[in-house]
Amino acid sequence: MLSPQHIAPELAQRALEVKHQPIHLPNCSAAGVEVLLRRDDILPGGNKFYKLHFNLLAARESGCDTLVSMGGAHSNHLHALGIAAQEQGFKLRVLVRGYAHMAITPTLADLKAAGAIIEFVGHSEYRELCQAGYIRLNPNEYFLPEGGANAHGEEGARYIGWAIEQHFGTGVSDVVMAAGTGSTLKGVTQGLNGCAGALGVSVLKGAAGSSLYRNGCGHQPGWKMLWGFCGKGYGRPLAAPMLAFWREFEYNNGVLIDPVYTLKMLWALNQLARLGYWRQGARIVAVHTGGLQGRRGFKQQPETTINNTAALCAV
Length: 315
Ligand SMILES: *Cc1c(COP(=O)(O)O)cnc(C)c1O
What we know:
This protein has 14 helices and ten strands. It has 315 residues and is an alpha/beta fold. It folds into two domains: 4-44 and 151-313, 3-Layer(aba) Sandwich (Rossmann fold), CATH 3.40.50.1100; 48-148, Rossmann fold.
């Protein structure tokens, strides 16, 4: 089998350059568990940087000049796609869940500035489109599903797991990441190639998570999915303890995180330490998948002295 380095050398290189930074989580420190934060948030689009790579190659190979995709009004996926489309000279059409009279979000403003055509789709129609997985396309259009969650997306996410394996071999026990559609988890699991366990922390409540199984994660050995750490649910306001944890994490570590994905993942990691889930002396890689652009639209912001301009520019 060809190694990732031969298939997409530039993506492999970017993945290898990402740093792993020791972080302090109170319950993990108390339990003698070492946590390294893999800073994929530094890449433009975080985990979406990986998920878009092979999609854009496929779009080009099929001779399409326009990308079409869908998502919410704060979507990290659409934002990353906007940047990538502009950089690589694609036109972009996005279907956004919501209504034209809604207040424009920072994400949508950036998409407009990047030249994207925005079409609003009401909630029930949006759900139908997602379920059908089909949108009427012109021959020059290439479609990416919500979250970039297709086989090309998974193939890109493999490079995260592969790079961790290159860095640490069997020196880490678990690789933990937030999971939405679960396609990053699936790709990372494949990339790790058995050198460590892959653990997804679902940010979706209940049945919404069943899309994971539609994505085929259910048949993949080497990964686990954890439920029950998503607070009030996807993108919902945070209860006081999680809000306090967010503020303290940023203060202690000098790293900005987003409230929808990475906060939930780190919260789970810390809670699990209290429950005795990790063995003493364990070394864990937690993947910071990015998402800081989406944070701009979030109402409960902790005060921070961290210079977030650099971090936001990196989105
Ligand atoms: C999209 C996203 C995820 C989830 O990725 P999936 O492949 O859908 O599971 C995690 N973190 C951030 C910051 C994201 O934007």
